[in-house]
């Protein structure tokens, strides 16, 4: 995915690739700890790899300013990836996830308390790095961290009485995923002394892309081949998480327009979430038209992200941003 993004950026390819190599070196250094047992835990997920989408977006948007791909850009990109990694440690504890990025999750490795604290260490390391970038960058980091936490809280507590489940879900996606992607895009412009107008535009782009990305993940959770992805289909269903396909089915049920298979899915998920129940639900969902509705929603959010790029001048950066948005949903074609 990063290769495709760099390719879309045309003449920026070599510089973007070099920047990401430097960021990876900074990241691997940042996750190290002086005590061996703690070091094993804090570098666990960084060593397992990952897409590095957020650093790539930060690097790409830095080319909107006059001082692109500099040391501040590298630090900014490292900060957003450290923050992302920290949230994964915490998410895996809350979800009791056995695996992450093809390796045993941190809490399976060392227990919940140690995994939470390892995530906290990474948050602290990100905060220490961002302090080098000045007050504006520090404030952006703090606001983004707050939004990440609010998003997780809202997902945990459920929708307020005056908010529909669908609207609440989109809000959670924007807070939990969109906020950090938005910050990644904004950091790139800030680090290269770009204009406030460009920073605002790419931040809004990033937030919408984040929602599109998660909606695409809702499709992948149902439609993916576990032997290929390494992720068991229906993972969210097994955890009792109501993602967009289920929310849309519930809307149909409330409106009295749900079909037999859709009602069967809801009835199954209202009971014991054993393997047989989830497997039957996944099989029914794979053949249900509601999955096309979720694909369409993901594409709508991706298209809306591209629509806010009008202030960005035509050229390699804009081409790369459009490619970035398209890549989020091309995974579900």
TrEMBL record:
Keyword tags: Magnesium, Metal-binding, Transferase
Alphabetical list of CDD domains matching this protein: Trans_IPPS_HT (cd00685)
Coiled-coil spans in chain: none
InterPro entries for this protein: Isoprenoid_synthase_dom_sf, Polyprenyl_synt, Polyprenyl_synt_CS
BP term (GO), one: isoprenoid biosynthetic process
Recorded GO MF terms: metal ion binding; prenyltransferase activity
Cofactor(s) listed in the protein's UniProt record: Mg(2+)
Recorded family membership: Belongs to the FPP/GGPP synthase family.
Record's protein name: Polyprenyl synthetase family protein
Organism (species): Flaviflexus salsibiostraticola
